[in-house]
């Protein structure tokens, strides 16, 4: 369940259009739809966004804005409110030097449709399956590394997948481990024939995966700010695969159907599949067949 709105306005003189998605666990996904060509979509990110409910549909919000080009970086912290009438508004301060540089912002409500979701499977709690994300890593120096990531979570707690960066043609494989509450992976980036290994580790929320990243060879790092930071990914699609261990995290409607099928076998022994075979059938169940559809925002 979430509330969604499209907003547009200027931030430090840069016209920006955003899709804001307010999730029920107090997290916010902010996706940049439009920004100046001289900046480029892959060089601007709004991250670490959270909200809490206020009176009369008002939401109190905080988030970070990161803009990076070869010439400069901007790191701002924004604090304000959101409502369906006025949009997103408040004040910002310079996060790299909070004694100087403040101003106001106002992203008003605009008409239109944001990127559509073809599935509503949640991210948390993690379960076996394949998950695709859009977002990126933010360096401690403010650099933005936009990317898409695909994670395949296997039954035995292993992770495989790949990352495709926005500006880099290479597709990098990753491997790692996961539990219901946490996930980590390693990846090697190759630049001019030299590989560097990085580790990412984070915590899932309802639809967001947030955490930290760093280069593994800390002793070889010349600029720690350039080789470590945070990441913020929003779930685009999830194919959660059923297994016995994670049965309780599937929708109640599906669990009721499964219970009926398995209990009916006990009453009638002839012509019915054994439990193990039913469990094999259940692995083909799509989570979204039994999940409640997302309600439109008011």
From TrEMBL:
Entry protein name: Uncharacterized protein
């Amino acid at each position: 369940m979430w509330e969604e709105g499209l907003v547009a306005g200027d931030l430090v003189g840069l016209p920006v259009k955003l899709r804001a998605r307010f999730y029920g666990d107090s997290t916010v996904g902010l996706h940049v739809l439009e920004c100046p060509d001289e900046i480029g979509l892959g060089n601007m990110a709004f991250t670490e966004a959270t909200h809490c409910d206020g009176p009369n549909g008002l939401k109190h919000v905080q988030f970070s804005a990161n803009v990076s080009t070869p010439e400069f970086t901007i790191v701002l912290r924004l604090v304000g409110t959101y409502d369906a009438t006025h949009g997103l508004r408040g004040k910002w301060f310079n996060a790299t030097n909070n004694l100087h540089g403040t101003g106001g912002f106002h992203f008003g409500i605009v008409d239109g449709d944001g990127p559509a979701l073809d599935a509503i499977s949640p991210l948390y709690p993690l379960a076996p399956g394949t998950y695709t994300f859009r977002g990126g890593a933010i360096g401690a120096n403010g650099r933005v590394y936009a990317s898409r990531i695909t994670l395949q979570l296997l039954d035995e707690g292993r992770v495989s997948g790949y990352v495709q960066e926005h500006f880099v043609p290479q597709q990098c494989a990753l491997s790692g481990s996961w539990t219901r509450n946490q996930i980590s992976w390693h990846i090697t980036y190759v630049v001019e024939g030299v590989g560097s290994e990085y580790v990412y580790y984070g915590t899932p929320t309802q639809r967001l995966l947030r955490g930290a990243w760093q280069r593994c060879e800390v002793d070889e790092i010349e600029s720690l700010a350039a080789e470590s930071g945070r990441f913020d990914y929003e779930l685009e699609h999830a194919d959660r695969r059923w297994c016995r261990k994670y049965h309780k995290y599937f929708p109640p409607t599906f669990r009721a159907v499964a219970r009926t099928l398995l209990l009916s076998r006990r009453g009638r022994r002839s012509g019915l599949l054994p439990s193990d075979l039913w469990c094999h059938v259940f692995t083909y169940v799509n989570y979204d067949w039994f999940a409640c559809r997302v309600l439109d925002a008011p």
